Amino acid sequence: MWSKEIFKQMYLSSHGDTTFSTFTSARLIKNNLEESGFVYELDEGFSNKRHMLKGKALSTNVKEISKKKIAVIGSGIAGSTLAYKLAQRGHRVDVYEQNDELCSGVSGNGVLITYPRLSAFDSPYARFCLHSFLFASSFYDSLNSNAWYKSGVFLMNHDDSSLKRQNSLLEARPSNDLFEELSCEEASKRAGLKLNNGGIFFKKGGYLEAKALCQDLLSHKNINLILSSRVEKIEADGKNLTLVSEGEISEYEEVCLCAGYASENLLNFPGLSSKRGQISYVDSSKDFEKLNFPICASGYFSPRVKGSHVLGSSYSEVTNDIVLEDEHTSNKEKLKAIHNFKVNIVDGNVGFRAVTKDRLPLIGINKGIYVNTGHGSRGSTSSPLCAEIIADLIDGRPLPADHEVVIALDANRFN
Ligand SMILES: Cc1cc2nc3c(=O)[nH]c(=O)nc-3n(C[C@H](O)[C@H](O)[C@H](O)COP(=O)(O)OP(=O)(O)OC[C@H]3O[C@@H](n4cnc5c(N)ncnc54)[C@H](O)[C@@H]3O)c2cc1C
């Protein structure tokens, strides 16, 4: 496995700040490291190993990344995470938001629960779901934001097919650090609420108040948030990128389109459509006010945030944004699998998901414009890794996802 080619590839994927460590200190490894452009030192080893190696890449040959003037269209979770990543790298970022408040699209629709859609089988889709979840969890941790609650998330087996899926996951990953199986009793004890079924618990999952989190992200000193500014047109002539908003024309070195389902007003996306969803706000009550983490089944029920719980969500063909009694009723129906307590719905909210046929986001470059949309029902989980991919594409750095995953996400795949 430790061939010279592997070390060469590691070096090519490295930059000036790249470090490594390995449990092994075998002569072959040391030789290959040296020959490939790394320096190392010996350190105390683990367990019965006397030594381990630590070191860094001598990649002074990596060219300095130029700092660019970049426009991001949309201040939802996708646009805000991307703007933040770019700003952290020293780029100057203008974020355009058509409304007079940031994060006022579907991301601002209640709380967003962050957990993965796992599969027992390997595929680019499964790898993206797993890696984006782990990436999102550690990204939100790194922000130290009060808007991220790393409570864990409980995925309940509420019917035959969810039980079957859970069993095949447990079979494929009998011991792992990602999730643990909980009986109904154990889950109820940890949740602080009598639940109706067992399931699996993702300890790295959680939920976020997206508006507050986006506010934190967009307060970076390199970001200029431009509210009440609808982008009407993007022109890319191969050399310059021009953006027209509110009658003003501005030039940028790069433009990133993160406008959710409305992205197709600015570029043509054959595989993108919108799907309405309604959440119900439930008055907190003694019965469930102490709920410790979100419970997800065919619907979901969140811990108390600002005095109420979020009960979600519908997935409907209706095209207007009026809160509907029918959809409150269907949310209540979904709750029956989770717990038996009576709930009092006090309000609701409607949003439109940007969905694709294969349930993967659209990430990449289309007609000279970077695209970051199609996050469907899992934008809080998928956005941080997608932001990192786009930022690396812009900077010409190695991508944080394997080639098959990058192809599976390609923004042009439905053309
Ligand atoms: C009912 C419901 C429940 C959900 N629950 C969850 C959940 O629990 N967990 C989860 O991860 N996901 C959930 N989702 C999905 C999640 O909301 C989305 O995946 C995510 O918010 C998408 O973020 P975005 O930034 O791509 O889009 P948006 O949040 O829609 O952001 C796009 C922004 O672009 C702006 N914009 C659009 N056009 C222009 C223009 N021309 N010029 C300037 N600005 C423009 C919009 O105003 C908007 O602010 C849910 C969705 C729904 C509908």
Q: What's the layout of helices and strands?
A:
Blueprint: H1 4-12, E1 19-22, H2 27-36, E2 38-44, E3 51-57, E4 69-73, H3 77-88, E5 92-96, E6 111-114, H4 124-143, E7 148-149, E8 153-156, H5 160-172, E9 179-182, H6 184-191, E10 199-202, E11 206-209, H7 210-218, E12 223-226, E13 231-236, E14 241-245, E15 248-252, E16 254-257, E17 272-283, E18 295-296, E19 300-301, E20 308-312, H8 325-335, E21 345-356, E22 362-366, E23 369-373, H9 379-395, H10 403-409
Parallel strand pairs: 4-5, 4-16, 5-12, 8-18, 16-23
Antiparallel strand pairs: 1-3, 2-3, 6-11, 7-11, 8-10, 9-10, 13-14, 14-15, 17-20, 17-21, 18-19, 19-20, 22-23
Helix pairs in contact: 1-2, 3-7, 3-9, 4-9
Bound molecules: flavin-adenine dinucleotide.
Summarize the structure.
This protein is of the alpha+beta class and 415 residues long. The protein has helices spanning 4-12, 27-36, 77-88, 124-143, 160-172, 184-191, 210-218, 325-335, 379-395, 403-409; strands at residues 19-22, 38-44, 51-57, 69-73, 92-96, 111-114, 148-149, 153-156, 179-182, 199-202, 206-209, 223-226, 231-236, 241-245, 248-252, 254-257, 272-283, 295-296, 300-301, 308-312, 345-356, 362-366, 369-373.
Total of domains = 3
* Major pleated sheet: 8 strands, mixed
Overall shape = globular
- Going by CATH, the architecture of the largest domain would be 3-Layer(bba) Sandwich
CATH domain class of the largest domain: Alpha Beta
Classify the secondary structure makeup into a structural class.
alpha+beta
User: CATH H-level name of the largest domain... which superfamily?
Assistant: FAD/NAD(P)-binding domain
- Numbering strands along the chain, what is their spatial order in the largest sheet? 9-10-8-18-19-20-17-21
Percent helix, as a range, is 25-40%
Calculate Rg over CA atoms.
23 Å
